[in-house]
């Protein structure tokens, strides 16, 4: 293993980054709230990674598709739990992808990447060393560490000439297709701007031409004014169910100002984000009375294209439409791209508001209503 450089302070904050290398040459980075981390040595003697992926162009849809056949052999739900988990810390007798006996947050290059060969980048981010934990159970300061980690990775990947968009996300739950139970997410550095982002930015461009306004800002203002779909809000963020929600349970988190990506968030905005992110996840956990499979998807501005049109936001959604029923993308959704939602956004928002905990001490949720469902105007 090559000698790692000394730890670096991330973005002027108190987060400390330590770089290292795994035995097959992949990069691994530890993120800690205190200095003193020493990069571990990977003793596994892995062969150098040789992956072949292709980016193929679909002329009909004007989209790019990644072809990565080597991912067929990736690790899938090891039966031994933590004893066979490659994301747990390394201990005597069990060497893993993280060559230290503990960690707070760690990032490493994916051994089975969707992008390879110097085109894009695929990383794994482990939120905690606790195999049986979950992101929504982390304390706010640890979620803040994850936010700082994602911001640092966004900044570093955005500096690469082969990356056009950085996409941090978490897949949670077997129903979503998660192959490892350990709490983790991924970060894709796409070598192109994704179709969803292109479509959003084109909508924002047309809206600006037509109204001279900002589409994202006006959506946020409408939701905060009407309040019917607002779930909760803080000083810097608002969480709401979108008016045309596609998924049975779907919540969007918007910052109150025009930030383009996670690195642009201020210290106060990042701390506030940790609070509201955990609040929303807590409500989602109670929605069906069982652990909720979900996807948490960060929408960030492209690195070089139309950044002025974008607005950072988080999309949280679940395919669970009832405690024991999944929403499948059948003919209309998969064949034509037209979603049919069996729930109404207003009902979902109302239920999520009722599941609030009134953590601000007022007995009211973030939408300004009593947990009983009244507006709190009378005693």
Outline the fold blueprint.
Blueprint: E1 8-9, E2 16-21, E3 27-32, E4 54-58, E5 63-67, E6 105-109, E7 121-126, H1 140-158, E8 165-172, E9 184-190, H2 195-211, H3 215-226, E10 230-233, E11 237-240, E12 249-255, H4 267-287, E13 294-299, E14 313-318, E15 320-322, E16 325-326, H5 331-336, H6 345-354
Antiparallel strand pairs: 1-2, 2-3, 3-6, 4-5, 6-7, 7-9, 8-9, 8-13, 10-11, 11-12, 12-14, 13-14, 15-16
Helix pairs in contact: 1-4
Q: How many strand elements? A: 16
Shape: globular
Q: Count of DSSP helices?
A: 6
Unreliable runs, pLDDT <50, ≥5 residues? 358-379
Residue fraction in strands: 15-25%
Question: Structural class, from helix and strand content?
Answer: alpha+beta
Give the end-to-end Cα distance, rounded to a whole number of Å: 67 Å
Helix content class: 10-25%
Order of adjacent strands in the largest pleated sheet? 1-2-3-6-7-9-8-13-14-12-11-10
Major sheet attributes: 12 strands, antiparallel
């Amino acid at each position: 293993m090559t000698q790692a450089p000394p730890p670096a302070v991330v973005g002027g904050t108190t987060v400390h980054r330590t770089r290292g290398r795994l035995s097959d040459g992949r990069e691994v980075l530890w993120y800690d709230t205190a200095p003193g981390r020493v990069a571990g040595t990977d003793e596994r003697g892995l062969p150098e990674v040789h992956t072949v992926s292709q980016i193929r162009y679909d002329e009909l849809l004007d989209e790019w598709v990644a072809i990565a056949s080597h991912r067929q052999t990736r690790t899938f739900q090891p039966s031994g739990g933590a004893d066979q988990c490659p994301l747990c810390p390394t201990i005597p007798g069990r060497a893993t992808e993280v060559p230290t006996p503990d960690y707070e947050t760690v990032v490493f290059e994916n051994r089975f990447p969707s992008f390879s060969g110097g085109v894009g980048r695929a990383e794994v981010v482990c939120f905690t060393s606790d195999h049986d934990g979950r992101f929504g159970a982390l304390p706010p300061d640890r979620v803040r560490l994850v936010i700082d980690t994602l911001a640092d990775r966004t900044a570093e990947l955005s500096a690469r000439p082969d990356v056009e968009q950085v996409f941090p996300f978490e897949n949670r739950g077997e129903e979503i297709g998660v192959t490892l139970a350990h709490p983790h997410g991924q970060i894709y550095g796409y070598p192109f701007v994704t179709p969803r982002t292109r479509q959003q930015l084109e909508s924002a461009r047309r809206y600006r031409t037509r109204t001279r306004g900002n589409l994202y800002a006006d959506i946020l203002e409408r939701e905060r004014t009407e309040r019917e779909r607002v779930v909760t809000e803080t000083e810097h963020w608002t969480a709401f169910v979108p008016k045309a929600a596609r998924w049975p349970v779907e919540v969007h988190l918007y910052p109150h100002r025009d930030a383009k990506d996670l690195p642009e968030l201020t210290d106060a905005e990042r701390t506030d984000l940790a609070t509201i992110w955990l609040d929303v996840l807590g409500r989602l956990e109670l929605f069906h009375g069982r652990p909720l499979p979900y996807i948490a998807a960060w929408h960030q501005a492209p690195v070089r294209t139309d950044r002025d049109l974008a607005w950072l936001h988080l999309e949280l959604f679940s395919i669970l439409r009832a405690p024991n029923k999944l929403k499948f993308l059948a003919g209309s959704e998969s064949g034509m791209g037209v979603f049919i939602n069996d729930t109404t956004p207003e009902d979902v928002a109302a239920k999520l508001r009722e599941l609030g905990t009134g953590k601000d001490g007022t007995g009211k949720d973030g939408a300004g209503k009593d947990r009983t469902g009244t507006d709190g105007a009378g005693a």
